[in-house]
Write a structure and sequence with these properties.
alpha+beta; Glutaredoxin; Glutathione S-transferase Yfyf (Class Pi), Chain A, domain 2; five-stranded mixed β-sheet; globular; binds glutathione; Glutathione_S-Trfase
Length: 200
């Protein structure tokens, strides 16, 4: 399998998942300014959305959308610790978090990464992110991870997008449950290896 990624982008989430399930994979770096891979391929030819992550299977089939790529990977690996079995409520509780993170958190960072958004828009999204993170901090009270005491793909996704708070100067250290959650996930070897591999 090949994972097309950009350093520290949302593609880090399926990258960490690949390391958690321990299957062989290849990383292909994409320059998101030029939309070119390191070998000079036009990335739009592979993914007409122009976005990472993109997963390419050994037979050439392609899958986009990070939240879905993570589900596909853990299902393939039968890792129901990272995403519980189909037809059980805990699975849909993890998926509810995945959807919340994708729709409410991930995209709320967009104004900070595109120059066309003005300061007023950034202020609005700072407020939105602060409200969501205060709520997430409450949800983490008395538990190690979002849905209990075991890591799931939702925790990995939340970790990846919440790292961006540091890049945009969003102060979250007053949220003590969220802060210890971030540290807990950051301490995992798979996470450290993935971040290191992306910075090489
Ligand atoms: N809905 C997509 C969004 C992916 C996305 O926003 N990717 C960003 C990096 S985090 C990207 O590739 N941006 C470059 C572009 O849109 O041209 C997903 O969840 O996978």
């Amino acid at each position: 399998m090949k994972l097309f990624y950009s350093p520290n982008a949302c593609s880090l989430a399926p990258h960490i998942v690949l390391r958690e399930i321990g299957i062989p994979f290849e990383l292909v770096k994409v320059d998101l300014q030029q939309h070119l891979t390191t070998s000079g391929e036009d990335f739009y030819e592979l993914n007409s959305k122009g976005q990472v992550p993109l997963l390419q299977l050994d037979d050439g089939q392609l899958l986009t959308e990070g939240a879905i790529i993570s589900q596909f990977l853990v299902d393939q690996a039968k890792r129901d610790d990272l995403l519980p079995k189909i037809n059980t409520l805990p699975r849909y509780q993890v998926l509810a978090w995945m959807n919340f993170i994708a729709s409410e958190i991930h995209k709320a960072y967009s104004p900070f990464f595109h120059e066309s958004y003005g300061e007023q828009t950034k202020a609005v999204f700072t407020e939105i992110l602060n409200q969501h993170y205060a709520w997430i901090d409450q949800q983490l009270t008395g538990r190690l991870y979002l849905t209990g005491n075991y890591l799931s793909i939702a925790d990995i996704y939340l970790f990846v997008v919440t790292r961006w708070a540091g890049f945009i100067g969003l102060e979250l250290t007053h949220l003590k449950y969220l802060t210890s959650f971030m540290q807990r996930v950051a301490n995992r070897k798979t996470v450290q290896d993935a971040i290191m591999a992306e910075t090489e």
